[in-house]
Amino acid sequence: MAADMLEEEEVLLSKDSALNLSDSEDDSAIKSTKIELQECHLRSVPVEEDGIPSQNSCGSIHVVFASIMASLGGVLFGYDIGIISGAVLQLRDEFCLSCSFQEMVISAMLMGAIAGSLIGGFLIDKYGRRLTIIVNTVVFLLGAVVLGLSPNYPSLIVGRLLLGFAVSLSATGECIYISEIAPHKKRGQLVSLNELGITLGLLLAYLVNYLFINVTEGWRYMFGLSAIPAAIQGVGMFFLPKSPRFLALTGKDAEAEEVLLKLRDGRKMQVHRELEKIKSSLSNEKEHSGLGLLSSSDNMRGRMFIGAGLVFFQQCTGQPNVLYYAPTIFEGIGFESDSAATLATVGLGCVKVVMTVITLCCVDKWGRRRFLLTGATLMGVSLLLLGIISHLNDHVYGSNPCQESVQCTQAATDLTNNFTIPYSTTPQVFIANESYTLSEAEWLSYYMDNYTAAPPEEPHVHIHGSTLGKIAAFTSLMLYVAAFGFSFGPVSWLILSEIFPASVRGRAISLATVLNWGTNLVVSLTFLNIIENIGVSWTFVMFSIVCAVSVIFIFFVVPETRGKSLEQISKELNNRSLKSGIRAYCKWLHCCNPLTGSPIKLPNYHRVQSTDSFNEIS
């Protein structure tokens, strides 16, 4: 088969060469091409429109393997976010955590993520993408060990802070690394591997939660298992190439060319042209300081507006609440036990994985904007349906959901046995995040003051009504998760990795992710209070309105980057303004025609070709 392909290639080349070369030159060209084909395992190479040979499977192996290894950080990202939903059910009894302390355990990771976003970009831009990812796996390992061996509440907070820092740095570094090693026609698929890793991590976390939810100190296994993919990624990244764009940025052109030759399977002409484009783009880009990220130079202000808007709507459309409070919501629509609600979240994880796989296969064919617009619309519809269903089915939510005390199981048992409380050698109470050791008399006094009242019901959502209503609510929730899974989930990170100049890409994405994690923190901490004040129905309706606003933002502001090199995207965005972007997409709407003028009403009117480069963006 390989010989036949080589023979066919010789015939085609000989015919093409006959137009310009002599017979002796034809023979020479064919022999030269034959050698190149043999070096590439006798595989023919299709030619792209610009004359550059496209990447064959020889180079694809290196790119795909590097992308998969980097995407293990996405698995850690998703796992460490999802695992807390099951672990906290055991932690509250193990450490006698009140509801506010439980929220602190969950939110500590978000606080660490904000810190990671603030300094992670500088590390990525200064020390490189690959080295930062390797160091970050050490932080993942340290966080897993601290959490798995935690003897008290403060150590839990420290472990969660470490994981938050690592998760944030992972989200930024890996997307940048993959986008800079990938060929532009496959960049969407390869960068989406990171989001696929996140969804697989979430699914794995939900499965581990279900397996260990009834195991004594199962939370230690839940946290500790994340060390395995962290170790694999740390070792694997040592054998992967550095980012060629970072090497060119630091003046290491020879090393950048060597890396590109490996990633593009030794195609010298393709590598030469790609490296020249990278160097040309870098020479045209200006150096930006921290404040320069918000300047008008290179349209950084406009780029940051796109990135900030995407991450803002990614969080404010309600995704964190579904992620962190999924078992609570499932209990409300019919899954009444902890194990059943935890098992139901596995179905949620499966839906996210399936939708991400679909995006992975189609994002480079259908485009980023189409996925975002469709997903945001479906999210708004599903949330509106959830609000209507909750209202029609007589939704009830307990008051003061986060003010009750959580009781230790053993202490509650001892109270019923004539108040005989066994005194351990180091009984502890946690006040204002500090641990205090009490004497036996102090422990008895503290216990009588805080745990003698009848335990209030645990906060949960409960929907009264028909089975049909519960099925409809469950279906709407799954539709929401599916829509997020093929829109804001993978596509937001993909566009963030594409729209910023290489010299400032790490810092710019980090600044955007500060807003991402900060918004996530605010939305998560206020969710229960919002429900208490306006009810679940209006909470869902509020999120659906935010989805509608996001559709408007995406339509008028977010550009299409499909099929374009990073250098081409940067060049187009340099000359783009918000006004020109709105004008470019406004022509699609008949209601906006008055903004561009009517040729029918003007005499001697004739159309001219627009010089606005952004009009080329479809």
UniProtKB/TrEMBL annotation:
Residue ranges that the Swiss-Prot or TrEMBL entry lists as coiled coil: none
All copies of domain Major facilitator superfamily (MFS) profile, residue ranges: 66-562
Record's protein name: Major facilitator superfamily (MFS) profile domain-containing protein
GO biological process, one term: D-glucose transmembrane transport
SUPFAM superfamilies according to UniProt: MFS general substrate transporter
PANTHER family assigned: D-XYLOSE-PROTON SYMPORTER-LIKE 2
GO molecular function: transmembrane transporter activity
UniProt entry tagged with the keyword Protein biosynthesis: no
Organism, scientific name: Magallana gigas (Pacific oyster)
Chain segments annotated as transmembrane: 63-84, 104-124, 131-151, 157-178, 190-213, 219-240, 304-327, 339-363, 370-389, 477-496, 508-531, 537-558
Gene3D superfamilies the UniProt entry points to: MFS general substrate transporter like domains
Record localization: Membrane
Family: Belongs to the major facilitator superfamily. Sugar transporter (TC 2.A.1.1) family. Glucose transporter subfamily.
Reaction equation(s) it catalyzes: D-glucose(out) = D-glucose(in)
Keywords tagged on the record: Membrane, Transmembrane, Transmembrane helix, Transport
Keyword Transmembrane helix set for record: yes
InterPro entries: MFS_dom (IPR020846), MFS_sugar_transport-like (IPR005828), MFS_Sugar_Transporter (IPR050820), MFS_trans_sf (IPR036259), Sugar/inositol_transpt (IPR003663), Sugar_transporter_CS (IPR005829)
Membrane topology: Multi-pass membrane protein
